[in-house]
Design a protein that fits this description.
It contains five helices and five strands. The protein has helices at about 5-20, 25-35, 45-50, 60-70, 115-125, and strands at about 75-80, 85, 100-105, 110, 135-140. The two termini are about 25 Å apart. The mean pLDDT is about 90.
């Protein structure tokens, strides 16, 4: 499978925003590109440091507003357990269940999709009378390179 470059991902995201009729501002594009160029997950303040090299006037609110937009569009996932963000490379389906494998040794994050896990979780939720509106499953351990 060919991995898309950050420029190809940005172009794809621009097309998605145009189709949805939402504004992909310069700041949002810059934060998206930084995430696309980053290996693995990154925290908001580390993103801010990188953004300041492009836009010296960038503030925490700039990052948080951009991340909020990118998250709502399905372009990024927030990793709650480490308070960081990772780009979703298949963001055309922004409502998909999210399952993340997080390496505690090197920080690598891999997004996987298991329809079996999703079905099992939804079946158990339905049996409890619970309606899932958003799903992120985070699994911590060691990646193949760190084992």
């Amino acid at each position: 499978m060919k991995t898309m470059t950050s420029q190809e991902l940005l172009s794809k995201a621009q097309k998605v925003c145009a189709k949805r009729g939402v504004r992909f501002t310069t700041a949002r594009e810059q934060v998206f590109t930084l995430l696309a160029e980053n290996e693995g997950a990154i925290g908001a303040y580390d993103l801010l440091d990188k953004l300041k090299s492009i836009d010296a006037a960038a503030k925490p609110a700039t990052i948080y507003r951009a991340l909020d937009f990118l998250s709502k569009q399905g372009f990024v996932h927030k990793i709650e357990s480490i308070n960081a963000f990772v780009l979703c490379h298949h963001f055309s389906d922004c409502n998909h269940p999210v399952q993340l494998l997080i390496c505690d040794a090197c920080g690598h994050v891999e997004e996987i999709q298991s329809n079996h896990l999703d079905l099992a979780l939804r079946t158990m939720a339905d049996a409890s009378g619970f309606a899932i509106t958003h799903q992120v499953v985070e699994a911590h351990g060691k990646c193949q390179n760190c084992q």
